[in-house]
Write a structure and sequence with these properties.
The structure holds three protein chains of three kinds. Chain A is an alpha/beta fold. Chain A is built from 16 helices and 17 strands. In chain A, the strands form two sheets. In chain A, strands 3, 4, 5, 6, 11, 12, 13, 14 and 15 form a nine-stranded mixed β-sheet that branches. In chain A, strand 4 and strand 5 form a beta hairpin. The longest helix of chain A has 21 residues. By secondary structure, chain B is α/β, with parallel strands linked by helices. Chain B is about 30% helix and about 30% strand. In chain B, strands 11-10-9-12-8-1-6-7-13 form a nine-stranded mixed β-sheet, with helices on both faces. The mean pLDDT of chain B is about 90. In chain C, helix 6 crosses helix 7 and helix 8 packs parallel to helix 11. The radius of gyration of chain C is 24 Å and the shape is globular. About 5% of the residues of chain C have low confidence. Classes of the chains: A alpha/beta, B alpha/beta, C alpha/beta. Chains in contact: A-B, B-C. Chains B and C meet through strand 4, helix 3, helix 4, strand 9 and strand 10 of B and helix 1, helix 2, helix 3, helix 6 and helix 7 of C. Strand 11 of chain B pairs antiparallel with strand 15 of chain C.
Chain lengths: ~425, ~270, ~425
């Protein structure tokens, strides 16, 4: 038994397992320490699994991984109180290999992913909490767990311990997250027969869809709601900035109930039996709150590094990519025999060059803009609904008159200048 | 001292969900776990090993996936583990199961005779408590069931003293070793496994044995070797929908007392 | 059989349920991995004998018809080896000369079986200086009592009881043996059945006879009570079953009833024995007699935490009830395991069962179905217990239980007075 491992990965989520898989594939001795009963036990994802990032690790993984449905359609809904403006994109080519993305159950998928890591030689230790990093002369040299004889040593520790990274905090990589840097998401799994799901969502057998909902879904708070189709379940969830949830004193489950009662959502979930309920924090700080990523003998990946694109609801892909890039840096360091900050710095460089940091940088002000300017959620979405209602309700009023009324109403509410400014700012934030 | 512990992989029955309409089981929600009583049996065996030296060997019968349960036992401090797995075992009732396990124990103890066999008092999926006594009879050794304390082990005289749980106390029983003991949960508090044991278990690959490797008569195994079979299966009878009493707390209680009074007068 | 456990388990989607609710195999997709066999709760699937297993499920549906109440019919006589087995036996459990109530309950159940089979009912009594107890057994329905007396049988020990019991069976060949599912009964039954190489069904909740084949139909809960399975032992005799206390009704004794006493010689060579009972320690405070309680106040997870559990003690104390608990409350560490009611705890049959904050997991409900009146208090109107209770109150048990104290006390006192 080697007393010292090449790497210890803390946390068996997407980022940790991706790192472990890559490192053990290259022959490194790796141990993954997970606090849940099994990998995925504590993992929640309000998102989908992106094929491309996963395939960079395991080619053609879809042939054996436990997946729910390939997503062939993504819909975007803007909800007002009683109405909805819909748009979306459906693509038959997404129904064929190599696919675009999948809905998955994390409990199931992560266990499979962990098995793959074990096949490559990684050791997975469950039900074990890492209490702190062991630091010697400023260098991380191992971890201390809550088990008897629980110290473990390695050349590098990969922190993949999730959004509320205790270890990152202990090492001084970041401060306590501010409530506006995290979103609280709640999610339910509703059971329905396969055919019913396919009928209600207009799907070919086995295919899936996702719906992102803006506006009333979050009762006007900055955040989004989502509905995903699994094989025999619908996942429905809603997330909003913790700061706003606190401010409005809303109970998270109320958000979910409110969403399920919306006239556009109600028929989709009718008669479905809730079987699971999850609540989870999601890092939303974006680019501006990325902590220190590399130090002597340690790297930070995934949610622990706040690598989540709040605007596009992408997190697992960034987790996987950051895990893989960190692994490559560790492998590189092993080859050189140095594990200090410089030796591991290629992780940071590669991450900066990847879509991860580029995307986060691009949207770095968007979240903040939406939060500080309530008009996007509270005025423009209702206005869009109102506009379509006016144009589509046939009541003998001429379209020209309606247009006039509309323009007046939009300008009357916000003023042309404000509208222009808001559009410009949003364009600037996401351009 | 060589201690053999028999363990079983069971579905976590607390998690088994059932669809009352169709009377079908939703097994996806029921994870496979080590039978809780068996975990205590393993822990007790490991404690005795720590006091008296020797070795703890795990034996289990089940599908290939049951290696996970054996690895769990390694976490708890066991030294070796054997999984008896073969299609020929499938469908075994308690009589056939005790035969297969007894043959398995004989096989793995050929060169290292056992002094003690530990089992959980029963498995939570079947709740029969029959396999332990069955193994003891097949190996022709004394059985001590429902043990909640091991008070003394005299290796020289080969005598073990235990407390057997009774409804209103316990009895102190001595038995000549080798013997078989089935344990209650209160026999010990499960200890938190050490990290070295966790690492050992993560690496450990249990030995696999199939029917041909047991030197046994296959007609005593599986469906053929099982005297019992299932004639039918059905949904449990319900007492029928209860009468819901509604109203303010005071009203509800008044109504309830009135109804109770009427009913008891009948 | 329709439980679909196997279908869900098959990693190759090679199993499906046909319209009659039987499991079928897609031969081309099946890789003989055996996963389905192991999950089958009723051991109805086998791989090597696929054809046979299908046949069996067919038989099963026939059996459904047979077993429907043909009680009036006289059982047929069997031919061949099985024909020499005759009679129903009940193992009479005693300690210090006191007969366990479950044994008397089983005499009642055994009487019905014996009548359907047209055979004698016998009690088998082992112990030391207990001959006078035999009369008692006739009153509860035994035609015959086999009496095995010896100082070495004073305390129950597997080896002495088992050896003598097995010898007796081999001499007289009963076709059915019933034992109480007590620690003693289960210990003995498992050993005896193994020695005799015969079928044993544990913890039965119903017993009946199939007169066509003289089969004991032993019904028991499976999967924590989620489904019931009727088990038979077609080609083996004797057919053995254990039954928990309070599952069968205690028969009314008929005092003038007499029977035949068969004294059996017992030889025990103490020097050859491998076990000795050194001492029996009674812990008076430890005894929790839920089985015999007339009123039980039981608490569950809905009470919120261990401190709140005291509402159960308070209510129980004021109305002279015994305290019980659901598995969830026991596993949360609020109360000791011996108070657990349900399939993994104790089966109870009180006059009144008050369930506070118990949602009614099936394994709990299985253990309380014998209650005369079940009162359930729970905040969740959807809680399964409301489907099984006599009276349900949707509300907070912490508020309601204290309010129940006085009026219940009054009611019970009135009833007692009248």
């Amino acid at each position: 038994m080697p007393k010292k491992f090449d790497a210890i990965v803390v946390g068996a989520g997407m980022a940790g397992l991706a790192a472990a898989y890559k490192m053990s594939s290259e022959g490194l001795s790796v141990v993954v320490i997970e606090r849940g009963d099994y990998p995925g036990a504590k993992n929640v994802m309000g998102g989908v699994l992106y094929r491309s990032m996963m395939e960079e690790l395991i080619p053609e993984f879809w042939k054996e991984a436990p997946l729910q449905r390939p997503v062939v359609e993504q819909r975007f809904w803007m909800l007002d109180k009683q109405s909805v403006v819909t748009s979306g994109y459906k693509d038959e080519s997404w129904a064929e290999e190599p696919y675009n993305c999948f809905t998955v159950f994390r409990g199931e998928f992560d266990r499979w992913f962990a098995k793959k890591c074990e096949e490559k030689g990684a050791l997975i230790i469950n039900e074990t909490l890492v209490e702190s990093c062991i630091v010697d002369d400023g260098k991380v040299i191992g971890v201390q767990t809550n088990r008897p004889e629980g110290d473990l040593y390695a050349n590098v520790v990969v922190l993949a311990d999730g959004v509320n990274s205790l270890l990152g905090k202990q090492l001084g990589f970041h401060r306590e997250w501010e409530p506006q840097q995290v979103a609280l998401a709640v999610m339910e799994e509703l059971k329905l027969p396969e055919e019913v799901i396919e009928d209600r969502f207009n799907l070919e057998p086995g295919m899936g869809t996702t719906i992102e909902l803006f506006g009333q879904g979050t009762m006007g708070m900055v955040g989004t709601a989502f509905i995903y189709t699994n094989k025999q379940h619908i996942s429905i969830g809603v997330g909003a900035l913790l700061s706003q949830i606190r401010e409005k004193q809303v109970q998270p489950y109320q958000l979910l109930e409110n969403l399920k009662q919306h006239p556009a959502v109600r028929p989709l979930v009718r008669g479905a039996e809730p079987v699971e309920y999850y609540a989870h924090l999601i890092p939303e700080g974006g680019y501006n709150s990325i902590p220190k990523l590399v130090s002597d003998g340690v790297v930070v990946v995934g949610d622990a590094a706040q690598l989540v694109n709040g605007i596009h609801r992408e997190g697992s892909n960034m987790a996987m990519t950051s895990g893989r890039l960190a692994a490559e840096a560790v492998i590189h360091a092993c080859n050189m025999g140095h594990f200090d900050r410089d030796a591991l710095s290629s992780y940071e460089n590669e991450l900066n060059n990847s879509f991860v940091i580029k995307d986060l940088e691009k949207y770095k002000d968007a979240s903040h803009l939406l939060e500080s300017n309530p008009r996007y959620f509270n005025n423009y979405i209702p206005t869009a609904n109102m506009a379509l209602r006016e144009m589509l309700t046939v009541d003998g009023v001429s379209k020209k008159q309606k247009q006039k009324k509309l323009t007046k109403s939009i300008l009357g509410k916000n003023g042309l200048f404000t509208l222009g400014k808001d559009i410009y700012q949003m364009w600037k934030a996401v351009r | 001292m060589h201690i053999v512990v028999c363990v079983k992989q069971v579905p976590d029955t607390t998690e088994v969900k059932i669809d009352p309409e169709t009377n079908t089981l939703d097994r996806s929600s029921a994870p496979a776990i080590i039978n809780p009583y068996d975990a205590h049996a393993v822990d007790e065996a490991v404690r005795l090993k720590e006091q008296h030296g020797g070795k703890v060997t795990i034996i289990s019968m089940g599908p290939p996936g049951a290696v996970e349960v054996i690895k769990k036992c390694i976490e708890l401090g066991a030294d070796e583990g054997y999984l008896l797995s073969d299609r020929k075992f499938a469908g075994s009732d308690t009589l056939a199961t005790s035969y297969i396990l007894a043959k398995g124990i004989e096989t793995i103890c050929q060169d290292n005779p056992f002094q003690l066999i530990f089992c959980g008092k029963q498995a939570i999926d079947g709740d029969t408590a029959q396999v332990g006594p069955g193994i003891a009879r097949r190996l022709l050794i004394p059985q001590l069931t429902y043990v909640n304390e091991v008070t003394a082990v005299d290796s020289a005289k080969e005598v073990i003293t235990v407390h057997r749980k009774l409804d209103d106390g316990y009895e102190v029983v001595e038995a000549k070793m080798p013997c078989l003991i089935t344990v209650e949960k209160e026999i010990n508090q499960l200890r938190y496994s050490s990290l070295p044991n966790m690492l050992r278990a993560a690496r450990y690959q249990p030995h696999m044995l199939n029917a041909d490797e047991l030197n046994a008569d296959v007609t005593n195994m599986g469906l053929k070797g099982s005297p019992t079979s299932v004639a039918k299966i059905f949904a449990p009878e319900q007492r029928g929908e209860g009468e819901i009493i509604a109203g303010s707390n005071d009203e509800t209680i008044n109504q309830l007392i009135q109804k109770l009074s009427d009913q008891m007068a009948k | 059989m329709g439980c679909e456990a196997c279908v869900a388990e098959c990693p190759h989607q090679a199993l499906y349920m046909n319209d009659e609710g039987q499991c079928n195999v897609l031969e081309n997709d099946c890789v003989d991995c055996g996963q389905c066999v192991d999950v089958c709760p009723v051991a109805a699937i086998s791989l090597p004998q696929r054809a046979e297993s299908k046949e069996q499920s067919n038989n099963t549906s026939d059996k459904n018809v047979i077993s429907e109440n043909k009680t009036e019919e006289k059982a047929v006589k069997l031919e061949g080896d099985l024909s020499k087995y005759q009679g129903v036996w009940v193992f009479i459990e005693q300690r210090e000369g006191e007969i366990a109530s479950v044994s008397l309950e089983l005499l009642g159940a055994g009487r019905e079986l014996a009548d359907k089979l047209g055979v004698e009912l016998s009690g088998v009594l082992l112990g030391s200086e207990i001959a006078d107890k035999a009369n008692n057994l006739y009153q509860y329905g035994a035609d015959k009592v086999y009496l095995l007396e010896h100082p070495g049988l004073k305390y129950y020990r597997t080896e002495t009881y088992m050896q003598n019991f097995v010898q007796l069976v081999q001499k007289y060949n009963p076709e059915v043996i019933l034992m109480g599912a007590t620690t003693t009964g289960r210990d003995l039954a498992g050993a005896v059945a193994t020695d005799l190489g015969t079928g044993l069904t544990a913890d039965c909740t119903a017993l009946d006879i199939d007169p066509e084949e003289r089969l004991l139909l032993a019904t028991r809960p499976a999967f924590g009570g989620n489904i019931m399975a009727t088990i038979v032992s077609k080609k083996h005799r004797p057919q053995m079953a254990t039954v928990r206390s309070k599952v069968m009704k205690m028969p009314k004794p008929i005092f003038e009833q007499q029977g035949e006493l068969v004294k059996v010689d017992v030889e025990i060579d103490e020097s050859q024995l491998l076990t000795k009972v050194r001492e029996i320690v009674q812990q008076a405070g430890d005894k929790v007699n839920l089985q015999d309680a007339e009123i039980i106040v039981a608490g569950g997870r809905g009470l919120g935490d261990g401190d709140n559990f005291k509402v159960c003690y308070d209510l129980a104390k004021s109305i002279g009830a015994q305290v019980g608990a659901s598995r969830a409350a026991v596993e949360a560490g609020w109360i000791d395991h011996k108070y657990q009611v349900g399939q993994t705890g104790v089966t109870v049959a009180p006059k009144i069962y008050i369930a506070l904050g118990i949602s009614g997991a099936i394994q709990h409900l299985v253990g309380i179905r014998g209650s005369d009146i079940i009162i359930a208090v729970n905040t969740d109107p959807e809680a399964p217990i409301f489907k099984e209770c006599t009276y349900g109150i949707v509300g907070d048990a912490l508020e309601i239980a204290p309010l129940l104290k006085q009026p219940l006390q009054q009611l019970l006192a009135d009833k007692k007075a009248s």
